Amino acid sequence: MTQLVKNLLSRIISASFFLMLMINGAAQHQRFSFTEQKMGAPFTIVFYAPDSISANQLARQCFRLVDSFVLIFSDYIDSSELSRLSAAAGKDLRPIPVSPALLELLLLSKTAFEKSGGTFDITIGPLSKLWRAARKTNQFPSNESVRAAKQLVGFNYLRIDTLHKTVLFLRNGIQLDLGGIAQGYIAQKIMDFLKGQQVTNVLINVSGDIVTSGPPPGLQGWTVGVNMPENKEELLAKKLLLHHKAVTTSGDFYQYMEHGGKKYSHIIDPRTGYGVTFQRNITVIANDGITADWLATACSILPLKKAKKLVRQMHAALLVSEIKRGKVVTRATKNFAEYWK
Fold first, then answer.
1. Burial class of residue 247, CB neighbours in 10 A (0-12, 13-18, 19+)
2. Distance between CA 231 and CA 132 in Å, rounded?
3. Is residue 117 domain-resident?
4. At what angle do helices 100-115 and 289-301 cross, to 10 degrees?
5. 149 in any annotated domain
6. How many structural domains comprise the chain?
7. pLDDT at 9 over 50
8. Using one digit for the tens of pLDDT, what is the confidence trace for 233-277?
């Protein structure tokens, strides 16, 4: 046997041994699941790691990162950056410095506003607070109060300066509500952090906003259920099989008001000031959690034809499900079928 052949065999054996080590190392990874209450709802992170010590350490880092974002984006916390921004906006009309994270989310929200034809609008804060109080007291707001709140809604009242990293409100009383995009943003940021830590098989669930990376070892994807219309307990018979995708389902089964024989969803149309009155579930599958989150809100407001067009433009998939005459009726974009398990 020549020396060349011996060297070649040696390299093959070494490469095979290294490959076996990699396979065995991957096979030894265990599944870990961590859940904490964040933003008033369960925040669940599922991933695979070699041992409980490293898994717990990663989970703690993730939840600390979540807390840091909550202190920026929450409109329930008076000391959050968002709350302080809204409070400052009502005092004078001067540019206000914002953090890099808030600036990024405001710019993403501007894109969502433009692409959705104004159906997704984070300046909806005055209307959100009005309807939040109405649901709490079970008192339907007057037409006058809705009109007054609506006068303070409009992305055109917001100026974002990317050079100086400031925000200017062109009208006093503007209040921002990031509820339709912040959860997806935070989930995606946690996913990006774990990818940076070489954790590649992850599912993150933030109160129904789900982001996935690589599938569990040995499987083709993560199995995800879709809620039945008007029901938060039951799931559709079919399940989704996802990897490297995000999915969000939006519907009125969580919060709504009944008035004059109609159900008014907690999803408010910023163009009218009222919650949408058609009862349907919107499920959006997109390439990232941010897009899935705001698309689900916009598509809950838009007519079906326009919703489908928007979803196609965003390279996403859409499922609309509703109950008619006691039966579940679904309509979807053509590409949604490829995600059914």
1. buried
2. 21
3. yes
4. 40
5. yes
6. 1
7. no
8. 778 889 999 999 999 998 755 567 888 878 888 899 999 999 888
- DSSP 8-state assignment for residue 110: H
Domain hosting residue 143, numbered range: 84-169
70, part of any domain: no
Pairing label, strands 240-242, 96-97: unpaired
List, in order, residues 6 or more apart from 69 with CB less than 8 Å away: 101, 182, 185, 186, 189
Q: What is the pLDDT of residues 158-190, one digit of tens each?
A: 999 999 999 999 988 899 999 899 999 999 999
Determine whether 237 is exposed, middle or buried from the number of CB atoms within 10 Å of its CB (0-12, 13-18, 19+).
Answer: exposed
How confident is the model at residue 16, as a pLDDT? 42
**Burial zone of 324 (CB within 10 Å; 0-12 exposed, 13-18 middle, 19+ buried):** exposed
Helices (H), 74-181: 81-89, 100-115, 125-137, 143-150
pLDDT of residue 325: 76
Q: What pTM was estimated for this model as a whole?
A: 0.88
Q: What is the pLDDT of residue 10?
A: 47
Identity of the residue numbered 289: G
Which amino acid makes up residue 98? V
Q: What is the CATH number of the domain that holds 132?
A: 1.10.3980.10
